[in-house]
Amino acid sequence: MAGETPRLLRWKLGGALRDLRERSGRTIEDVVRELQVRNPMSAAKISRIETGKLPVNPRDVSDLCALYGADEATTAVLLQQARESRRPATEDQWWHGYPNIDDQYNVFIELESVAARIRTFEAIVLPGLLQTPRYAAATSAVDFDPDTVAARVQARLRRQERLTGPGAVELVHAVIDENMLHRPIGEPGDGTLLEQLEHLYTVCAKPNIRLQILARTVGYYPGMYAPAYTLLENDEIQMPKVCYVEGIQGNPFLEQAVNVEHFESLFNRQAELALSPDDSRTLIKSLIARHRSAGDAL
């Protein structure tokens, strides 16, 4: 279990306990009734354990495994997961090595690091996974001090390691507003935007990157004035679908199905209106040619 975060272990443990309960033919209400003398638990507590929202006491795991008829080997694995899931975050999780980054952003990076599919909408700046270092620095410098800017740039470069190699993310699907591809970034004439467009043209050719541009010709589209948001999911590790919403007053995580479904529906409508990935790449290529003909430097 080395390298697995407490949050990930809680999801795995919760999913395993839910599977054991269902295979035993019990409902949550059955468990509440059968454990009321030995180890009273509420239905809400069992539900939170099974969805990974609650650190689990090893005694609870032991009693649940006994009730479900789990064998010794399975029980031992789940007990170890319970112990590990209760430990505090440690610095072997690289995102905790950046003191200038706030806790919410740390949580986002943790969830992103285990997500198999990432869907994101941006109307102001490009998604962090697709940014060059100079673009990341230029767009962060407006809001943060130099130390924080440097930390955020380094964090984005670490995040981008998931785009390639072993453990690469299955899919990053980004829908972006065309206007951000025209907005001057960096110092006049320093080529930050051209460099970013070149990088974008290259990276969106990767098989696990799907980039769609909401062209200016679309006009008003659903969610045009919505905050940037990212949907994260991974069914294989029992990770619930999560939506991270960026905003001036904080960056909340939405986990309730009804809230996540709202943003999923919004994302699907935006993707339907956007250019196809091939047409989006063609548009980027035309913008690169325009900058080059104007004599912009990299």
Quick summary of this structure?
The protein is of the alpha/beta class and 298 residues long. It contains eleven helices and six strands. The chain has a six-stranded mixed β-sheet with strand order 3-2-1-4-5-6, sandwiched between helices.
Describe this structure as you would to a colleague:
By secondary structure, the chain is of the alpha/beta class. The chain has two domains: 6-85, Orthogonal Bundle (434 Repressor (Amino-terminal Domain)), CATH 1.10.260.40; 94-293, Endonuclease, Chain A, CATH 3.30.870. 46% of the residues lie in helices and 11% in strands. It has eleven helices and six strands. It has a six-stranded mixed β-sheet with strand order 3-2-1-4-5-6, with helices on both faces.
How far is the first residue's CA from the last residue's CA?
44 Å
Strand content: 5-15%
The helix/strand series, from N terminus to C terminus, equals HHHHHHEHHEHEEEEHH
CATH class category label of the largest domain:
Alpha Beta
Architecture per CATH nomenclature, i.e. the level-2 architecture of the largest domain? 2-Layer Sandwich
Outline the secondary-structure elements.
Layout lengths: L5 H18 L4 H7 L8 H8 L7 H11 L3 H14 L17 H12 L2 E6 L10 H8 L5 H14 L11 E7 L14 H12 L5 E6 L14 E6 L4 E7 L7 E2 L2 H17 L3 H17 L5
